[in-house]
Amino acid sequence: xxxxxxxxxxxxxxxxxxxxxxxxxxxxxxxxxxxxxxxxxxxxxxxxxxxxxxxxxxxxxxxxxxxxxxxxxxxxxxxxxxxxxxxxxxxxxxxxxxxxxxxxxxxxxxxxxxxxxxxxxxxxxxxxxxxxxxxxxxxxxxxxxxxxxxxxxxxxxxxxxxxxxxxxxxxxxxxxxxxxxxxxxxxxxxxxxxxxxxxxxxxxxxxxxxxxxxxxxxxxxxxxxxxxxxxxxxxxxxxxxxxxxxxxxxxxxxxxxxxxxxxxxxxxxxxxxxxxxxxxxxxxxxxxxxxxxxxxxxxxxxxxxxxxxxxxxxxxxxxxxxxxxxxxxxxxxxxxxxxxxxxxxxxxxxxxxxxxxxxxxxxxxxxxxxxxxxxxxxxxxxxxxxxxx
Length: 389
What we know:
Elements: H1 2-9, H2 13-31, H3 36-48, E1 59-64, E2 71-76, H4 79-89, H5 93-105, H6 109-112, H7 118-123, H8 126-137, H9 142-149, H10 156-165, H11 171-183, H12 185-195, H13 199-202, H14 215-232, H15 237-252, H16 256-263, H17 265-278, H18 284-287, H19 290-318, H20 327-331, H21 339-351, H22 358-388
Antiparallel strand pairs: 1-2
Helix pairs in contact: 2-3, 3-17, 5-10, 5-15, 5-16, 5-17, 8-9, 8-19, 9-10, 10-11, 10-22, 11-19, 12-19, 12-21, 14-15, 15-22, 21-22
């Protein structure tokens, strides 16, 4: 029984906190339905990696060599650590591959028929850069400040990839914050929008007269976007390229079964693996720090400021437009697709049951998908250049 006692005695107070964090994530996934495909495996993983002498992470053990009679040190490789080092640390394969599924799920038609909505995909990234500055002023290293700021994109895979490429010390807290706020879009966004809009502005009606989008345009769009984004921010090529590759699979019309797989099976499977894999960065000694609470707070600031940035940009445009834009649509320019568009539609019909903003919001929301990955590439480029000096 000594082995059982030694395991229990080895549990630290920080590990007890991580068991509670893991249990909370599992509860939110099951009871509240918050991003269950990610928070459920992440919660269980947080418990697994914090069990003393856990077999899911590498362990160094001393064994007796029966031939020489001497003690030798061996490393037993754990599956979660191996997954992290191979698919996150070495290649960022899992978050990048997830973009194939995201791209396959997106219909860029509403955006292509209303291209001015591209502007909101850029404007709603304001919170990222605002929070980077704030985090740097609070004492975070530039690479950590940039990684925290990207939470504002409300895009989990991009947050993980940026924080990993920049070698941030807080990959785990950033991943938890990014996906938590994605799940909290219906709560956070209405609060942020009402802070900077009046009832009269929320009642603005917008006509929807979609233009037809040719198949040629749909096929050329992902290729052109990848090329342009690559020239603007070369570090975004992996993100944008795989996102657009997924969309090209969807629009090609010649990969029916593979398109269905890319839209359904692939993203769900990768998200499950990503959740259990990223839990490696939730080891107690790395996660239980006062900086974790700061990251959660700064992530909320980034998310709120992204929404506010989109709203304020719409209000500025309205100064010059005859046909006004409902400012709430600007908030949909974040990457949380399609949750943000649904929130805007719900808020619009709450103010006026006959005011339907869904298609406008979807256009901005789709633009936000592109905007967030380009912003991620821009942040990586800028930070690497600054650190190289």
